[in-house]
Amino acid sequence: MSSPVELASLSRAPKVLLHDHLDGGLRPSTVCEIAAEIGHELPATDPTELGEWFRRSADSGSLERYLETFVHTVAVMQRRQDLVRVAREAALDLAADGVVYAEIRYAPEQHLEAGLTLDEVVAAVGEGLAEGEKEAAASGHAIRTGQLVTAMRHAARSREIAELAERHRENGVVGFDIAGAEAGFPPSRHLDAFDYLHEANMHVTIHAGEAFGLPSIWEAVQVCGADRLGHGVRIMDDIQVLGGIDEYGRPAAELGKLAGWVRDKRIPLELCPSSNVQTGAASSISEHPIGLLKDLRFRVTLNTDNRLMSGTSMTQEMTLLVERAGWSLEDLRWVTINALKSAFIPFDERLALIEGVVKPGYAQLGAG
Ligand SMILES: O=c1[nH]cnc2c1ncn2[C@H]1C[C@H](O)[C@@H](CO)O1
Ligand SMILES: [Zn+2]
Fold this sequence. Notes:
Blueprint lengths: L14 E7 L6 H11 L8 H12 L4 H6 L1 H6 L4 H17 L2 E8 L11 H21 L5 E9 L5 H10 L5 E7 L11 H9 L4 E5 L5 H10 L4 E4 L7 E7 L5 E5 L1 H8 L4 E3 L1 H7 L10 H6 L4 E3 L4 H4 L3 H12 L3 H13 L5 H19 L3
Parallel strand pairs: 1-2, 2-3, 3-4, 4-5, 5-6, 6-9, 9-10
Antiparallel strand pairs: 7-8
Helix pairs in contact: 1-2, 5-6, 7-8, 15-16
């Protein structure tokens, strides 16, 4: 049975976030303050106007143009103290939004302009996240965070970044990712990095199937051995909806071999509805494939991608799905548990969060 959703209570629902970019989630006021200190010119100096500028500019229908907005966030994340600050604020903002576990990603190679080393960048972000976690717990919003270290797919440093991730695995780094423009930069360009990580038994997620289709997803899964897919929304290209309901009570559909593999292997999809609408990967929230993929029982997770560029939060993404795609509280609980099952922390710790935090939290709201 599905429970009606009290929208006002969604901010209290426990949330799990696997796909959130540190350089896509800054507070507009922080961007303004640091930019003024370092003399970086912004398209707007008032925080409200700047927030609107990011959202408007990211509403471009193209991943490449969407990514251009990061020039301003990356610019203010070069000094050690600024990385600490941005990471601390990210942990605090997510905790205040009800997120109980978050994997936060960024590309260390983009934060070297003020002279930091790659290791110093990872240490600064780790320090900020730890501070944020501590403060959040003291204010009654416990959150656990982990870092995902990203290599940029157009660059040629992925092997070095993979080694960086491995060096810091006891120090808050839980996995590795590649990001950036997808068309023309297949994941297999970075095979050396993935081979290294598999040798070291490290977790890997790959942005694939966002701006480019099935060949990118196939390479990510079958050539590069991705544990999860960043977006993966274009797996839809391998699914034919037949109309009506099948013998299991699901939408009747024919899955191609790749879609079948992704579902059978329970490969998690890190879906980001608002971001996909902005980059043109989906036409609207109500038409976003997340609903169909949920009904077909793919391992669906719900994510923000870039809170600043999308003007969003986990509560907002949940609210949109409830309002525009008819999601129930049980659906939200399901994606939350899916996300924890797919997290890159040890199994026992995932289970402890599912049983000790997520299930009781949803029970309090009337689900499960
Ligand atoms: O949705 C995305 N797809 C591909 N790359 C992305 C996306 N969101 C952010 N990025 C890029 C821009 C950032 O500078 C970089 C590291 O977080 O990752
Ligand atoms: Zn992303």
